[in-house]
Amino acid sequence: TARASGLGNWAIYHPEMTRSASYRKWIEAELVRAVNGDEFDLVYQPQVNSLTGETVGYEALLRWTHPKKGVIPPSEFIPVAEKYGLISQIGSWVMQRACEDARALPPGVTVAINVSPIQLKCDRFVNELAKMFEQTGTRPEQIEIEITENVLIDDHDAVRRQFRSIRSLGCSIAIDDFGTGYSNLGSLADLPFTKLKLDRSLVARLGTRENGGAVVSTIVNLARALDVDILAEGVENEDQVVLLRAAGCRLMQGYYFGKPVAFGKPGDDESRAAPLQKLSA
Ligand code: C2E
Ligand code: MG
Ligand code: MG
Ligand code: MG
Questions:
Q1: ipTM exceeding the 0.90 mark
Q2: Residue 148 alpha carbon, nearest atom of ligand 1
Q3: Distance (Å) from CA 149 to ligand 1 centroid
Q4: Best of 59, 61, 205 to mutate for ligand 1, by most ligand atoms within 8 A of CB?
Q5: How far is residue 242 from each of residues 46, 47, 223, 239, 271, measured CA to CA in Å?
Q6: Which ligand is nearest to the CA of 181?
Q7: Cα dist. 108→126, 142, 144 in Å?
Q8: Ligand lying closest to the C-alpha of residue 180
Q9: Using CB atoms within 10 A of its CB, is residue 274 exposed (0-12), middle (13-18) or buried (19+)?
Q10: What average pLDDT does range 125-153 have in this prediction?
Q11: Is-contact 223 229, C-beta < 8 A?
Q12: Where on the tree of life does the source sit, at the highest rank (predicted)?
């Protein structure tokens, strides 16, 4: 097993190890150490009003830099953290850091925090969020909670209760990766979220023969009918910007507008504040 062979040996990677049971085991062991150490950081990607060019918010994205392996993407370690009960601890760290960082932003600019459905299921979650606002002095209006569309297949009443509690704190809620899951569209209407985030796979299909434009327009109209914002993710080129605008979507996020950017060294308030001010200028 990973443990028996000694973790040191696992610093050398073979591609075929990725997603294998032993790789997950290794990640699990390393995560336990990482959550207690200083290996996580957040990077921030701008969310832009494409009509005015104005940055309206930033999405906080988690990065894990392993001392030996280097950067491990969230797609590899979040599922492991979820499976082995580490996501709440990691999620708390993310929440605190994002709240601290949000204080450097102008009042109207939001910070979006990704929250795992497992965190959301915890009764403690909303209390913890409230405590975080108290501790950091961050205004809840500046925080947007992002939850993937998959949450909509969970117990509807429980999800609605949690959404209501989050909203009553003053935060907004975005449904992430929308358009890829198999959510019950009828059940959307009575959930108090404030934004749909169009998944980047749908943006990528724009302008192709697969008639992606019709799907995007339909989702934009759905957002309108529900009276929520719509934001397109994964926007990579100007053609997509033009097609999205034509479909009625003006909020966008993606490499075309800016890649996720690091904030500076943890604990160093001055260097942390500087890059963000630069970004928001
Ligand atoms: P997501 O929330 O949908 O985040 C968007 C992902 O798309 C990010 O990947 C971002 O770097 C990437 N992206 C942004 N613009 C573009 C683009 O123009 N083209 C392409 N190809 N990709 C783009 P990342 O940072 O690797 O995160 C992957 C996923 O991991 C996130 O998807 C989110 O579900 C999860 N995640 C990230 N941070 C956290 C966190 O703090 N907590 C939790 N629970 N999940 C997180
Ligand atoms: Mg997200
Ligand atoms: Mg997303
Ligand atoms: Mg996505």
A1: yes
A2: 34
A3: 14
A4: 61
A5: 19, 16, 19, 5, 36
A6: 4
A7: 23, 7, 12
A8: 4
A9: middle
A10: 95
A11: yes
A12: Bacteria
Question: Which ligand 1 atom minimizes the distance to the CA of 74?
Answer: 30
Q: How many residues are listed for the chain in this entry?
A: 281
Torsion sign across C-alpha atoms 207, 212, 217, 220? negative
Angle made by CA atoms 234, 236, 242, in degrees to the nearest 5: 100
CA 225 / ligand 3 centre spacing (Å):
21
Distance CA 275, CA 260 (A): 12
Candidates 80, 63, 64, 89; CA nearest to 27 is: 80
Structure tokens at 128: 């913890």
CA distances from 146 to 11, 26, 92, 106, 189 (A): 33, 28, 14, 20, 17
Dihedral, CA atoms, 264, 49, 136, 65, nearest 10 degrees? -30
CA 256 to CA 270: how far, in whole Å? 28
Assess contact for 87 and 281: CB atoms under 8 A: no
Q: 76-117 pLDDT, tens per residue? A: 999 999 988 899 999 999 999 999 999 999 989 999 999 999
Mean pLDDT, rounded, for 190-216: 91
Tell me the per-residue pLDDT of 115-135, one tens digit each, with 9 for 90 and over: 999 999 998 999 999 999 999
